[in-house]
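Homework help board

Subject: predicted structure for assignment chain

Our instructor gave us this sequence and asked us to write out the predicted structure in token form, then describe one feature. I got the tokens but I'm not sure how to describe them. Can anyone check?
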Amino acid sequence: MQSKCKGVLLFVHGFLGSAESFARFPEHLEARLDLHGFECKVLPAFDCKHTLAEAARRAVVYILDLVPPVAADEDGSNGAAPPRLDLILVAHSMGGLVAADAVRILTDATHPLHETTAAGVDPSAIRVLGLLAFDTPYFHLQPELLNLAHRPLVSVVQVMMAPVSLWRKAVALAAPAVLGAGFAHFLSNYITFLAPLFGESLARRVERLQYLLDTGVRVQCLYPKIRRRPPDASTDATTAAAPSSFVYIPRDLPPHITALFRPIPTTCSNPIEAHTHIFDATLDPASYGKLVVDVVALVESWLALPLEIEPVD
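My token output:
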């Protein structure tokens, strides 16, 4: 007998993010996926002064609370299958790393945090259908962003990630003598959370995504890509060298990993602005509307396909 399913799209914010990071995107998706029995929830804001692993562990605890309770007549004694949670994770920025690691904690009995967090959970109670990551730096940020204006690394990263308006970020980049030290000090409070962004090997980064694929979790990584005119005689060196995306995708990745990344259009003029305005419906209503439609179609395709593990050549 088929089990009763509860479908949830769980939104996972990035560094210093919150429910506001996604604006009305969850609401717009839920309105179109309700007929499939899915609702949207946003992971409560987590403290980025802890490690990324701790953020992932807390995400697992939240996910376990979403599992439907087993009623007296659904314990299997009468042949009825227990209720099940069908889960799709939707993440932004560093939230994509949190989401991927949460799935690992939840499903990998050999993970150091599994025993204390998810041990004893019935594997059939949760089915992770997919992970949709928006502008997640699984393989680092664009090097040109880190070298912006020859700023120190910690200063550049903090300017990009700081929870302030775009104009304040621009001021910070233009006036390092005034604001650089303050931003660097601010960053030091969160260095343990950001450590995987800078300290992990390429092999570890590939393995994070490969584990998901090997366990049947579908993965799609969407990132805004800025359209730039081909350089000509009037193009200055700074413009010619400007990166077109926030995330860095190495050329030597396995082809099936590279295929997980797909660019989406943006009207923003720089990667940082594009990164922080993916879900801003007022910036470019047409592109935002298409994004909603495309994501709904992607989710529907995941729901239509059987969950099975296919070997990777």
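Reply (TA_rk): Your tokens look well-formed. For the description, you could write something like this. Residues 148-154, 165-180, 307-313 have pLDDT under 50 and may be disordered. That's the kind of observation they're looking for.
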